[in-house]
Design brief:
The chain is mostly helical. 75% of the residues lie in helices and 0% in strands. The longest helix has 19 residues.
Length: 134
C-alpha cells in the first residue's frame, strides 16, 4: 500500500478475489505497470470493487460476471467488456449466459451497445478457442 502500512484485510481479500476472477497473469501485469501516480487507484479498485463487491457471498461469481458484462456493455467500456468476457473462464459464466446478458443490454440500453459488445465477445471467444493468451 502507498503509505507503507500493511494491507487491510479487505485489500487482501480483494486481491485474492481479483486474482481468482481475472487470473494471476492479468493482475501481475497490472501490478508490474503500477506507478506512484496510479497506485492509489489500484488500491481503490482492489479494496472497493474486488474486496467489497466481488467478494460478497450474496451472488455467485457467475452472476456477478453476467451483470458486470451487461453494465460495461451498456456503458460502452469495450476494453473492460473484453477483459470480463475472458474472465468468464474463471467465473463459470457460459457463452449462453453472456448472450442472455447482452440481450438485456439490447432491450434496456440499446441495440448499438449490445451489437458492439457482441462483436467484442465474438472476438474474445475466437482468441480463447485458438488458445491465444488474451
Amino acid at each position: 500500500m502507498s503509505d507503507a502500512t500493511a494491507p487491510t484485510e479487505r485489500y487482501r481479500q480483494g486481491l485474492a478475489t481479483r486474482r481468482a476472477v481475472l487470473g494471476d497473469s492479468h493482475v501481475d501485469r497490472a501490478q508490474s505497470t503500477t506507478t506512484d501516480f496510479d497506485q492509489p487507484f489500484q488500491e481503490l479498485i482492489t479494496e472497493a470493487a474486488w474486496g467489497n463487491v466481488w467478494s460478497r457471498s450474496t451472488w455467485t461469481k457467475r452472476e456477478r460476471s453476467m451483470v458486470t458484462i451487461a453494465l460495461l456493455a451498456a456503458l460502452g467500456h469495450d476494453e473492460e467488456v473484453a477483459m470480463h468476457v475472458r474472465a468468464t473462464a474463471n467465473t463459470g459464466a457460459s457463452r449462453e449466459d453472456i448472450g442472455e446478458a447482452l440481450l438485456h443490454v439490447a432491450i434496456y440500453a440499446g441495440v448499438p451497445a449490445a451489437n458492439r459488445a457482441i462483436k467484442i465477445a465474438k472476438q474474445v471467444f475466437e482468441q480463447m478457442d485458438a488458445g491465444q493468451a488474451v
